[in-house]
Protein: RmlC-like cupin domain-containing protein
Amino acid sequence: MPATNMSIPRPIRKIFLAVETAEGAGARVRRSIGTPQLRNFSPFLMLDHFNVAPGAGFPDHPHRGQETITYMLTGAFDHEDFAGNAGRIHAGDLQFMTAGRGIVHSEMPAPDSPDGAANTGLQLWVDLPAALKKCEPRYRDLRGSEIPAAEADEGRVQVKVISGKSYGVDSVQDLAYTPVWLLDVTIKPGGTLTQEIPHGFNAFVYTLDGTTRFGKERREVPRYHNVVFEEQGDVIVAENDAASGQDVRFVIVAGQILDQPVVQYGPFVVNSREEVMEAMFDYQTHSNGFERAKGWASEIGKSMVH
Structure:
């Protein structure tokens, strides 16, 4: 929705580069949340901007206690889990996976990339409220064709409203248990975005293309950076200089702050050290949610076995 004269821009807390590192089996990842720069930014646990060539990937691995949101930017990705769920998302599509009490799955690049190009996307880990940590696992896919779009500033601002609201356009999607807004923004030269953020939500931006100016400070931020905002304020303001000569693109992510401790050990995200030990024991003994892991191996993960 357009900002009123009373709207207060959220100040910038920090800006930092997501440095590319190796992850999984042959994948390259730019991780921003989940690094010493930004450990836990409730409800967000991790943000990876991944780049995975065919033949690499994330073979069979467990999760407990969180949700993952995967947004494909280029290429396609396959997933398969021990409950018999399997599918493929393409560029512009998303998958919302709730691990709940336990899941083991595999995430691998689709083998049919026409030019052998890398498969790129964003994966966000979202904490689950303590009362839902032991829920049954589930998947929800969202196709790019189902995502509504908003326009503003005489067409210079375009927003894919994946979840949440922007300029009067509502995603009408309830895809995660923890309330999360996810907006994919493109601004043409000379355009300015003013995006409302709900109170009680933390918010950040991850930049994908071009150099964008953020906040009343008008800080210039190039691509592959995370811009973290303070909780105070009503809106995020971003602009693309009229003389830039290129579009800018970034995602805005905001989520309801959870008032609970976060104890993470690798793929297990719980609320106490005791629950970490319990998760490891349950996974190793195929119990309390991990029963179906016994003897299971994904078909798509077998491409990694040499």
